[in-house]
């Protein structure tokens, strides 16, 4: 399995988790945080403020997603750049001889030796 495939799988997993964390939040202060403790944001189970946890997890997952995308781009550029440049070089070599041909000079109506 290539490194790009691994990065792609990780990107899909992180993107799914980010969607779930964002969908749990409510922009008006409701959502999961209000259902576990009312106005104070307190919840059972040891986490003091659910809104802080959701906020930190959103930023962490978003940062991780950005880093994974950049790293996958590096693996694409590192592995495929040599093959791509050869294709481009071959197409330039075949196009250059056609472009360097000079057009035929038009014949003048009066000869120069008269």
Automatic annotation (TrEMBL):
Its main location: membrane. It is a multi-pass membrane protein. Keywords: Cell membrane, Membrane, Protein transport, Translocation, Transmembrane, Transmembrane helix, Transport. It is found in: Cell membrane. Coiled coil: none annotated. Residues 94-114 are annotated as: Disordered. Residues 99-114 have a biased composition (Polar residues). Involved in protein export. Participates in an early event of protein translocation. Belongs to the SecG family. This is Protein-export membrane protein SecG. It comes from Gillisia lutea. The lineage of its organism: Bacteria, Pseudomonadati, Bacteroidota, Flavobacteriia, Flavobacteriales.
């Amino acid at each position: 399995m290539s490194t790009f495939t691994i990065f792609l799988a990780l990107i899909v997993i992180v993107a799914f988790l980010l969607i779930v964390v964002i969908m749990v939040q409510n922009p008006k202060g409701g959502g999961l945080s209000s259902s576990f403790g009312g106005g104070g944001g307190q919840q059972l189970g040891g986490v003091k403020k659910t809104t802080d946890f959701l906020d930190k997890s959103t930023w962490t997952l978003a940062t991780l997603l950005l880093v994974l995308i950049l790293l996958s781009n590096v693996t694409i550029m590192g592995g495929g750049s040599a093959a791509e440049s050869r294709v481009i070089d071959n197409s330039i070599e075949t196009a250059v001889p056609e472009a360097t041909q000079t057009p035929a000079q038009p014949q003048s109506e009066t000869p120069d030796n008269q």
